[in-house]
Write a structure and sequence with these properties.
DUF1731, 273 residues, SDR39U1, 10 helices, single chain, Putative nucleoside-diphosphate sugar epimerase, Epimerase_deHydtase, Rossmann fold, 14% strand
Length: 273
């Protein structure tokens, strides 16, 4: 979806993957040969899916989750530093696990803390996206909420149970769910690339504060299906292990203050959209 969004703006897109291809370079090529000639923007989205239900939460998988984010981000930063002609912007996508759950609303200026594995990961993830003080390349750090959209994100894993009328909230559904539509996240990345005044941290979340119950109701309504079957917390912890299940059960109140101040316009500002 991101490539399609950027191509629609007449941008040329080269992706980095494990294997090289016609419009791809490998991570090995990036380390050895650097950025493709003429690169004007670098966007890092790499990272192992934390909520992959087929993978047990072992020490090895946790290390893979860590390395797939930290190492790839550091590789992008090194490539930028080595480039003779620097790109104008480095956009790095991390998460909102920086912010502790609770009643307080968190803006981009809110203090962050390292209170669990995911918050420590997000801190180191952003630290890896650091360039030297004399670099002329802008750095934009987008802290993304849970990504919703028909083509991917959380929707893909939920559509079957909801379609068969087996969906429902997680636990009591009252916990916050900082979210963003996939297209809005792509548009925000494009916005960060195109607007030279945009820099620093952006909370990549929708303006609407929502709970898991709000999302469940809206999603079930869109599918014209009931949502009577809540998932007990113990069942979620059994599937994912509590250390990563917190991504679905313990969200913070996150607001996109700087995103709105920059004038970004959401295509999907609320769940009803």
């Amino acid at each position: 979806r991101l490539a399609k969004t950027l191509l629609a703006r007449a941008m040329t897109v080269t992706t980095i993957s494990r294997m090289p291809g016609v419009k791809h370079i490998s991570w090995h090529e990036l380390e050895k040969e650097g950025l493709p000639s003429g690169t004007t923007a670098v966007v890092n989205l790499a990272g192992q899916n934390v909520l992959d239900p087929t993978r047990r939460w072992t020490a090895g998988f946790k290390q893979n989750v860590w390395n797939s984010r930290i190492n790839t981000t550091a590789a992008c930063a090194r490539a930028i530093e080595r480039a003779t002609i620097k790109p104008s912007v480095f956009v790095n996508i991390s998460g909102v696990s920086h912010y502790a759950p609770g009643a307080q609303k968190h803006t981009e200026a809110s203090p962050v803390s390292q209170y669990d594995f995911m918050s420590r990961l997000c801190t180191e993830w952003e630290r890896a996206a650091t360039l030297s003080d004399n670099s002329i390349c802008r750095i934009v750090r987008i802290r993304s909420g849970v990504v919703l959209g028909r083509d991917g994100g959380m929707i893909r894993s939920l559509i079957l149970p909801f379609w068969f009328g087996l969906g429902g909230p997680v636990g009591d559904g009252r916990h916050d769910l900082p979210w963003i539509h996939l297209q809005d996240l792509c548009n925000l990345i494009r916005f960060a690339i195109e607007k030279p005044e945009v820099t620093g941290v952006l909370n990549g979340v929708a303006p609407q504060l929502a709970t898991n119950a709000d999302f469940t109701k809206a999603f079930a309504s869109a599918l014209f299906r009931p949502a009577f079957f809540p998932m007990p917390l113990f069942a979620l912890n059994l599937v994912f292990v509590e250390e990563r299940a917190v991504l679905l059960t313990n969200g913070a109140k996150v607001v996109p203050q700087r995103v709105l101040e920059y004038g970004f316009r959401y295509q999907y500002p609320d769940l009803a959209a």
